[in-house]
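Me: I'm a chemist; would you kindly supply a protein sequence with its structure tokens?

Assistant:
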Amino acid sequence: MDEAEDASAIDHGGKGRARDALLHACADTSERADLPGAPSERALTIDEVLDLAGFGRFQLRLQAISGLGYMADTAELLFVTFLLPEFARLWPHLTRAQLALVPALSALGTLVAAPLWGVASDVFGRRVVFLGSMGLMAFAGLASAAAPAFWPFVAARVLVGAGLGGALAVDFVVFVEYVPARQRGVSTMLITLWGVAGVLYVGATARLLLPTLGWRCYCASAALPSCALLLARFWVAESPRFLLLRGRADEAARVLRAVAATNGRSAALPVRLTLAPLPPPPALGELLRTLLRAPHARPLLLLSCVWCGLSCAYAGFTFWLPTFLAAKSVRGLDVYETFLLMTAAEVPGLLLATAAIDRVGRRGVLSATLIGCALALAAFSAASSHAALVRCSSASYFAVVGSWATLYTLTPESFPTPVRATAAGITRMCACVGTALAAPLGSALLGVGASAPLVAYAAMLGACALLVLAVPSETRLRPLSDGAPTARASLARVGEAEGGHLADRQAVDGAARGAAARSEADSADRAMPPSPALAARVDA
């Protein structure tokens, strides 16, 4: 049992665990007292401080903000699908290639901006990117609604794509850094449920606004979630992990106390909470080199390939779905009805994946959902009846939503705080590459046969499932890595201040008395060299 477990046992355990923890703390304190300059206080990791602060109103509020951000991202991604036919009617002189530049250049903006936003988040802080990316999306979204012609509209959509790259890269990073390990998996997975709301929002506004108020009002409606979220995000403070990494320990402690206060858990924290700062993070030029060296290079490569493959298969199947359905020549099959059923199937699929995320683990859920989606696409390629096509297409979305949610959870968990956002930005860039390849790959394979793209997408998802199994570490219920040494919160002298936690005072006073007794009893053995275990604890 290490010092972190001692603190957890004292605060939460039964009488037996607390007694054992105190005995161990006493022994550890006496051993450290034998060495010059050794600290006498117990220490807690930052994840243990979050455990004491609890999962409550603060995290639920942040989850709602992150979820609305994911909804806004989904809305900005999908609304062009409904807008391009309207542009083709309004401006008949535009060619198909020119219309295709709208999503293509927007995706290019995301591809270029995502890693830059990630680096900025690791260098300047999560909050500046959290606000800046959404601010850019809101401004550019409204600018696209006011664009006087087609090409200014395209330029505005490039800026929207750039903002989208930051939002998708950093939003999940901010959330996971505030959530205790035990609740992190389930709560992060549920954020993607807001994507379904984004799809429904875009579809509903397209049906209501495009025929009546025109495309400008429709563009403005797509930007409204971003505008509202920009105001809400001012409430979110800087990540305490980033503050601690930058040596701003007092600010980090204040943020953690605010989290506990919002959750109604202020009394659970020590009266005097001090955070020991980490060594300085890598310089700007070292960020990429750090990621490209062991132990981060392997998970970065594997997860980047999975992001690319999943994005290509998902975007390809969705983009070519009307073509696939038309090739089946099934009467009475409506594309919009099928897409609505597919979207509805995402809800139970996500709930099932969420229920398994902490039981099976991230890698197990991700590989299983990827294989499930691959099998559904393979079955779709062989289906010929109306019912079979609807079932197979719905099954593909039932599975793939679990893949997306798990990948959004696993990626920030797999990298330490100094490079977490940079890694997320790189993987998001790879996802853009996969999305860009989806349409031309499907077009080329359709020349081979109507089912050829489906078989290729299924094989791609199967390969991604194998890559997931090669990811070196399972992050289920594990504390986030803050680099070495681990970020620690010290239980410094617990004073007699009014409102102090009685259990903390009794525990520390008891540990001090036990340390003194142990020190006197072992005075004859002081000349003996310290054990390797003691040396390791002192070095830590």
In short: Residues 285-472 form a domain with the Growth Hormone; Chain: A; fold (CATH 1.20.1250.20).
